[in-house]
Design a protein that fits this description.
Rossmann fold, sugar transport, six-stranded antiparallel β-sheet, disordered N terminus, single chain, Wzc-like_C, LPS_length_determ_N
Length: 819
Amino acid sequence: MAANENTELEELIRGAGGSEAEVEDDGGAGLDLVTLLLVARRSLVWVLLLIALGLAGSWLYLRYTKPVYQSSSLLKIDEKTEAGALGLGGAIGSGDVRPSSSKLSGEVELIKSNIIYAHLVDSLALDVNYYVEGTVLESELYGISPFKVTYKVKEGSLYNTRFDVVFLNAQQFRLSYNHQGQEVSGEYRLGQPITTPALELQLTATPWMSQNVPGKKYYFLINDGGTIGNYLNKGLNVQIVNPDANTIQISFTDFNPVKAQAIVNKVDTVYLREKLAQKQEATQRQLRFLDTQLIENKDSLQGAEENLKRFSRQNKTYDVRSDMSAITSKLVEQEKARLQLEQQADLLDEIAALIEQDQITSNEEASIAESIPGLNRLGDEQIAQQVTKLNDLQWNLRRVLRSYQPTTFTVQQLQADLRLAKNSTRRLIQRSRRLLQQQLNDMNRERDALNAQLQQLPEIATQQTRLQRPYNLYEKTYLMLLDKKMEFSIAKAGATADFQILSPASGPSAPIAPVRMMVYAIGLAAGIMLGLGVIAVRYFMHNTVTSVRELERSTTASVLGVIPTYDKEKMSVSKLVVDRSPKSAISESIRSIRTNLDFISSAKKKRLISITSTISGEGKTFVTVNLGGIIALSGQRVVILDLDMRKPKVNLAFGAENVKGVSTILIDKHSIQECIQHTTIPSLDFISAGPTPPNPSELILNARFDEMLTELYQDYDVILIDTPPVGLVTDGILIMRKADIPIYIVRANYSKKAFLKNINKLIRANNFTRLSTILNDAQASGLYGYGYGYGYGYGYGQGYYDEVKPAEGLVQRLKKQFS
């Protein structure tokens, strides 16, 4: 039996696999909206439950999560000094300096540096945190703690240790903490020093001490530097809001809104103080540096001055370039004077030549200046007078010669005066000529001396330039240092903060996290998504037939009807129930199937009906027995043959034995009449399968089988054959070929959808044009969508049925929904 069951299981797997491979070919693929809606309706309770769980999770998260508050301030970096206001902006710098992005980033790093953190710890007392325990969450008592702790920790392991405080009354308290794995506790009074080898403590009352304090549980933590630094780093956020506007936002997040606001305000204050201190310190360092440089530069400048003095004394000049210019000017002036002297010498030579030629003038009316050009430029009045006199004598002599003879006394006297005048003029010209030559010689010697001095000046000028260069440099540096010292002195006197608080820190009115609406939205969305996931999983895992629509959609065979679930009693084996409950829903559904059978085979009075399924357990024996009972109740004679010789069940349905039956008839061991068994319905008989033969298929192919059917037709109108499952063995197919109406049983919520493809394969392979299906064991939802046949017998007559279902309780309804 075990071997047979394994073989059947392997055949079932192969059949199902082959059917699944042909899903696409049979047109059953795609999204089934009706099935999806059915699954969604059945999963509605799960969806609502998951949504409720999501919202409950959101509520629990909000209930047990501390709200986070944020306080922030807005700063504007704005460099301003009093020096700019005094009109020294050109020398010192503009009064409003626009900082660069790098400067803003530097300010951000300064605010988040340990320098600011150290001042915050000192001014805000962040080294001790005070807490009070509530019913659900604990709260930090920042600034409102009923007691204050002064301490001195001698052992570092006590940092970040929880010290529990329970006030017994307004003056006494119990202190307990864990030290090196052991609990240390004791009762003390406020103000009493607590001294241990590891630490020294003293708790004192604050103005917040009241009568409500006793009975509550408090505790405090003493934080070390690393813990405080991590706390500030985690909560403090500094970011550049607008680089163009030079604005920086300082924000702090904490569970306590008052503490967050206090920290932001203190950061602003400490940042202001630190900026002023840094600026003053920088100015002091710069002033000290300037003083040092001034002393060093002054010494260097004095040395350069001494070198220039020695140079001036040695070369008898202070400015060589000015000397060169003066010598050059002298040479130019001397050259001009020498040219004038040479011109005068040439003029004297010309006058001397005229005197020797007696041609001082050729015009009696001409003046001495016109007769001797340039005589006025000579600058010698004696020569000019002598020449004028000589000219007058010559003119008189010519005038007298026109009236007298040359031998006359007057003419001779005039000639003698003329010779005397010429001699005097020659002497004057010679004397003037010697003086001019002497002056020219003196000028030439002076020119030579100046040229020699001028040739030496470049070397001297180079030496002076070499000495003047460091002097100028030291002088310029010295003046610049003096100027800078004045600038920094003014800047130090008028230094102000380089930022403005545009928006001071305000107390946060609402927490920034968690956002209640967002948390509830997330919980709702999570519940909906999980619900949709459940629907999707159940839909994709929904591989069984549940409704008539799925049956019609996946097969080409007609549907005879639907048999509802029989809930009146639990049956271990299939039984005949239509005779006991003729007015039940199940009886009416089978009557509907009988009516549809009459429509299919109305022309034939003798009918052979085979009933099969894919696997065992789909209810073919139940349908066979009760369909035979309904047909028999209509007045027709019906015989039921149990040909499922491997697992006979018809005899169990009627509570009879299976000693003889079809198998013994086919081997001629018994006759048909010997094997016919009667039932409680007079017109309904059955023949059991008989002992299980080793070769059921060969027996069915035997000619004796056809003879048996022919013999049964003589006494019965309808032969109903309970065939073996066609998904496991081939016996059922052999019988279906002989049947007038082959019927295929599909059990709701049990038969796989892949099994329906076997029906299509049977129809195509064997040309079963009359093959019909019946949906067995259908729930109420499986009945919807089917209007003909079954609706004819099931849909009319309010109160027609005598099957009254008992009232269901809440547990039964929930169990039914979740099943």
